[in-house]
Fold:
Amino acid sequence: MKLTVLGCSGGIGSGRQTTCLLVDDDVLIDAGSGLTALDFEQLVKIDHVFLTHAHLDHVLGLPLLLDSVGDLRGAPVTVHALPEVLEVLSEHLFNWKLWPDFRRIPNAEAPWLRFEALAADGALTLDGRVFRPLPAHHVVPACGYHVATAAGSLAFSGDTGHSDALIAALNAIPDLRHLIIETSFENELKDIAILAKHHWPESLAAELQALRVAPEVWITHLKPGNEAAIMNEVRTAAPGWGVEALMQGQVITL
Structure:
């Protein structure tokens, strides 16, 4: 399995793109502005999108994807997410007001878009890759994802603050090779991080301390302009982990 980072920033500007991860050439995890980095021919190949939550920086590329290539595909793009996330998309995005409902275009019998609700403890296997939701603690219903392959596992936290449930789930993955976890704010902005349910370096360090597995750790969702300061604080708070910032264009293989 190959995971390509199309976007991993907590914002935009100077080439930054928001969260979108490409698994091989047919699956997306989140659909932020990083989706716009794909060539047209690559867009046509996207069959499945796994969403962590419905915030705009994680879904804004999805309507444009469908509008651009929906008529060229032989099957609908399937969006997988928690039921509460799909409800938000139905009411506030694909509602004929902000954007057309592609579950009805060109008709309900042959649409360009299909929703498939994921149970919090469910799993879906696609060509030998198993996608499982992971617990997350955010201001809206959210999850992360565990992607399992025969060569090992990768976990992505999505947007989250402290979560005992997430740590327990990660500790239950003995072959966890890569952990992509968010840290959005510097320590001095701890109060904002708590309010928005995001990590700051000291809270991330506490999560890592609770891990009984030893994956490579990649930090994502850094706020624009603060990346270097946040990473310096992460390395100070969590010495010995060798944490690195996830980079746009990076490829992780399993």
Notes: The mean pLDDT is 97. The chain has one domain: 2-253.
